[in-house]
Each structure stands twice: as C-alpha cells, then as structure tokens.
Amino acid sequence: MKLLQRLVYLIILSICTLSLQAQTDVFGNKIPAKKKNYAPVPDHYNKTDENGLKQGPWEKRYTDGSPLYKATFKDNKPVGEYVRFYPNGKMSLRIVYDEKGVNGEAELFNDKGELSSTGTFVGKNKEGKWTYYTSKNVIASTQEYKNNKAHGETIVYYPNGEVAESYVSVNGLKDGPWLKFFRSGASLLKATYVQDKLEGKYLYYYEGGQLEIDATYKNDKEDGNWTFYHQNGEVNYILKYKDGKLLNPEVLNERRAAEQEQFEKNKGKLKDPEKMQNDPGAYFR
C-alpha cells in the first residue's frame, strides 16, 4: 500500500513539474507570467512645495509598476528631460526643456519605438517647423505651427524625397497656393485656398505638362466653365457650373454613354478568363 502511495506521489510530482515548465497547471490552465519587479519610487520624488507647486524629480507609473513618465519640475514646470512611455515600455515622447521650462525640443515615437515626429514645444503648444517620419525613418512631411495651429507652409514628400504636395495655412486654415506634383517633379495641380475654401483657378495637368482640366471654384463650389482636354491638347468636353450646380448635365450623360458604347465595342476583343482556364498560355499568345 505504501509502495502504491509513493508511486502516485511521484506521478503527481512529475506532472506538476512538467506543468510548471510549460507554464500550465495540472488542469492545463495557463499560469500567469510573473510580473517584473520594479524598484519603488524614491522617497524624495513627487514632492510639492507649500504652494502646491511640483518641485524636483517626479515619476508616475502604470498599475503594473512600469513607468508612465519621468521628469524634473521647477515651480510646476518641467525642466531638462521629460520622458513618457507606452504600457509596453517603449518610449512615446522625449522633450528636453530649457531651464525656464518653456521651450522644449521634442521627439515622438510610435509604440514600436520608431521615430514619428520631431519639433519644438512652447509650453504645451507646437511651435515652428515640425517634421513627420514614415516607419522607415524617412521624412513624410513638414509643417509649420504657431500657437499649436498650422501656420505657414506644409510640404508632403514622396518616399524618394521629391515634393508631392505643398500648401499654406494661416491660423489653422488653408490660405494660399495649393500645389501637387508628379514623382518626376512635373506639376499635377495648381489651385488656391482662401480661408480653407477653394477659390479661383483649378488647373489639373497631364504629366507631360499638357493641361487636362481648366476649372474654377467660387467659395469652395464649382463655378463657370470646366474644360476637359485630351492629352494632345484638343478639347474633350465642357461642363458649365453655377454655385456648385451643373447646368448642362446632358453633356456628362452623353460622355458616359459614349464611354459605355466604347466599352461594349471592345468587350468582344477582351479575352474571357473562363475560356482560358484550361489553357493559361493562351493569355500570352
């Protein structure tokens, strides 16, 4: 009997040992991973003076004990390095403030630890030129700010560094030239914003430089004649607008009907995938 009890004990002990190694209990339930131990916040951290102002080093933490932010304060303003973290431990923000706690040079990161933007804070407001990056640390765009509002030029870049788009803002509203470009650098679009509304000429181009659309906006609505050109410079068709309303819809309907007719004529010339399924090489003959 004692031998049997001993044998049962050894079997249970073996199962428990294997279960612990596999991070599961004897019933197959997953054992929670042991939380990392963090040193306690030092006693001289997180102090305020008699006026309730933050002074000296501060550190706030998530409920699991990992750091949320670390900073040093002087009269309630961060001075020197201010760092924030994501719950996964990756840095989300790093700002180095001046001794007055006013101007700070900032770096922002995504939750993978990759740089997402750089720029200057004045207090909590974005100021001056900010640069934004793709996940591959390539500049995606730059934007100018004043009192935390877009103010100045914004430039968007292709991955190869060529300018894709630019526009001007005043106090958070687009106001001025709006330009778009092909990757080659040739003009794609020329238009103008006034107080965040399209106003005046709206010119769209083929990559070779020939005008494709010659249009006009008035108070952010289509207005006047919109002329569409073929790539050889000949007029394709003209649409007439007033305050955003199309006055000659029959032209657009005729255009669509012509495109449909052309499609029907070409349909018989297209290779039918069902007929080719037994002879894939036919696609290339």
TrEMBL record:
Basic and acidic residues bias locations: 258-277
Keyword Signal among UniProt keywords: yes
Gene3D superfamilies: Histone H3 K4-specific methyltransferase SET7/9 N-terminal domain (2.20.110.10)
Positions of region (Disordered): 258-285
Organism: Carboxylicivirga linearis
Record keywords, A-Z: Signal
Protein name listed in UniProt: Toxin-antitoxin system YwqK family antitoxin
Signal peptide: 1-22
